[in-house]
Design brief:
Layout (H helix, E strand, L loop, with lengths): L7 E10 L4 E8 L5 E7 L6 E8 L2 E9 L4 E5 L2 E3 L6 H12 L2 E13 L8 E12 L11 E6 L3 H4 L8 H14 L2
Parallel strand pairs: 4-9
Antiparallel strand pairs: 1-2, 2-3, 4-5, 4-7, 5-6, 5-10, 8-9
């Protein structure tokens, strides 16, 4: 696999911002002297985590409101890494806030990106095992419904309309591979 030279950033500027996002316009010069302008969402420098909790031969899923689709979606606990936290600490905190469990064992499965042509943010996906009840106050506007799902029936999740988030589907496959189901 050959290493290509990254384009030179000639200029960048924030062209729009909201409470959550910043859109950056980037002027690039490629190694063949071609120049292009790209727009991208400036990423959160702290990163994010997603956790696949396994408890008593079940996956523990979270059903919560998703503003982007205006639907209740089924997926795995996730959230931003707080300042001063490690990704592993953030994963354990999110588990406690969203589904009321702490993990004795967290295994990093993979770091994922979402639409890397437009977003700079990364998400680390963990498998959580050895769960015990432990609740922390989260920032959700309403309680998250915890949905247990038989581990051996993981393929049935793929047929559900409310299990559609690409990161959760990726996390399911990563966990399946790790657990050798």
């Amino acid at each position: 696999m050959s290493q290509r030279q990254k384009p030179e950033i000639l200029h960048r500027e924030v062209v729009s911002r909201s409470r959550l996002f910043q859109i950056e316009r980037v002027h690039l010069k490629f190694s063949n002297d071609e120049e292009r302008f790209y727009e991208r969402m400036k990423g959160n420098t702290r990163g994010a985590v997603m956790v696949v909790p396994v408890h008593q031969e079940q996956l523990l899923l979270a059903r919560e409101y998703a503003a982007g689709t205006h639907e209740y979606e089924l997926g795995f606990p996730k959230g931003l890494i707080d300042p001063g936290e490690t990704p592993m600490q953030a994963a354990n905190r999110e588990l406690q806030e969203e589904i009321g469990f702490a993990a004795a064992k967290l295994t990093l499965l993979k770091e994922l990106s979402l639409a890397p042509g437009y977003f700079a943010s990364k998400m680390q996906v963990f498998l959580a095992e050895g769960l015990t009840e432990s609740h922390l106050e989260g920032d959700e506007p309403e309680p998250i419904e915890v949905v247990p799902w038989e581990l051996n029936d993981w393929e049935m999740l793929l047929g559900r309309e409310d299990f559609s988030e690409s990161r959760s589907i990726s996390a399911l496959f990563l966990a399946q591979k790790h657990l050798k189901l």
